[in-house]
């Protein structure tokens, strides 16, 4: 699925650098922009659910935990 991405409020200096880089590579500024994004995201590794869960456990390990049955009971009592 192809889509469009509009980037607003770029510094003029950044746009100039993009155009110069594109010219060096024999591409349009738009094609250069696509290539920069492709390269930047190609090395990005999406964390697995297990890794994210482990990070969350690490962040919350010293916090007081309320047992779920207490929370359910409180919710029922509020009705």
From TrEMBL:
Residue intervals of the Antitoxin FitA-like ribbon-helix-helix domain: 4-41
Annotated segments matching region Disordered: 60-79
UniProt protein name: Antitoxin FitA-like ribbon-helix-helix domain-containing protein
Pfam families documented for this protein: FitA-like_RHH
Single GO biological process annotation from the record: regulation of DNA-templated transcription
Highest classification ranks of the organism: Bacteria, Pseudomonadati, Pseudomonadota, Alphaproteobacteria, Hyphomicrobiales
InterPro entries: Arc_rbn_hlx_hlx, FitA-like_RHH, Ribbon_hlx_hlx
Composition-biased stretches (Basic and acidic residues): 66-79
Gene3D superfamilies the UniProt entry points to: Met repressor-like (1.10.1220.10)
């Amino acid at each position: 699925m192809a889509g469009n991405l509009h980037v607003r409020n770029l510094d003029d200096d950044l746009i100039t650098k993009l155009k110069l880089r594109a010219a060096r590579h024999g591409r349009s500024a738009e094609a250069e922009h696509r290539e920069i994004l492709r390269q930047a995201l190609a090395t990005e590794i999406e964390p697995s659910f297990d890794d994210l869960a482990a990070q969350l456990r690490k962040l919350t390990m010293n916090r007081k935990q309320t047992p779920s049955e207490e929370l359910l009971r409180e919710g029922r009592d509020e009705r």
